[in-house]
Specification:
Helix content: 40-55%
Distance between the termini: 92 Å
Number of strands: 4
Largest sheet: 2 strands, antiparallel
Structural class: alpha+beta
Radius of gyration: 32 Å
Number of helices: 5
């Protein structure tokens, strides 16, 4: 018994249509919804309601507390006595992009940031842009800071080609 390609095509199309009809029947939620009781509409549902917060759980407070504790830890870890004592700590939000801290405190700050990540399920992700700027950690008045210098490779190559030394 041989089937022509036309017969196989017709059977395939019919099977596809039947499967589509079954799928749309299962997607219909009407059979699980309660039946309409009456034509009366509750006036309380028609009046505007005050906005409610999206999340009212207490974990939001723990996230805010964790964020403030992390910022306090970073602020306390910015002490230094020389430039070699400082390092960059650019982890993104909630820490500022231009942040430099003591190298001695970097492990504790990484752990504090991990605790912050664990307690805040809805946090902001962003990378700190650098562009053509070089960030260098320095110690100024016993406080770790970030100093920015430009690094334009085209400008450097041009000055080198012309034999001009940067001031």
């Amino acid at each position: 018994m041989k089937f022509s390609s036309l017969q196989i095509g017709v059977v395939s199309v019919v099977a596809a249509v039947i499967l589509w009809m079954i799928a749309t029947w299962f997607e219909d939620d009407a059979r699980w919804l309660p039946a309409e009781t009456s034509g009366q509409v509750d006036t309380q549902l028609q009046s505007p309601r005050p906005d409610t917060p999206v999340r009212t759980a207490t974990d939001v407070l723990s996230c805010e507390q964790s964020e403030s504790l992390l910022n306090e830890d970073v602020a306390a870890a910015r002490y230094c006595s020389s430039d070699d004592d400082c390092t960059l700590f650019d982890y993104g939000y909630p820490i500022q992009c231009m942040t430099s801290v003591s190298k001695e405190q970097i492990t504790a700050l990484r752990l504090a940031y991990r605790r912050y990540e664990d307690s805040c399920s809805y946090r902001v992700y962003y990378d700190c842009p650098t562009g053509e700027m070089v960030r260098m950690p320095i110690c100024r008045n016993n406080h770790c800071e970030v100093e920015l210098t430009t690094s334009d490779p085209l400008q450097d190559a041009t000055l080198q080609y012309l034999g001009i030394k940067e001031p």
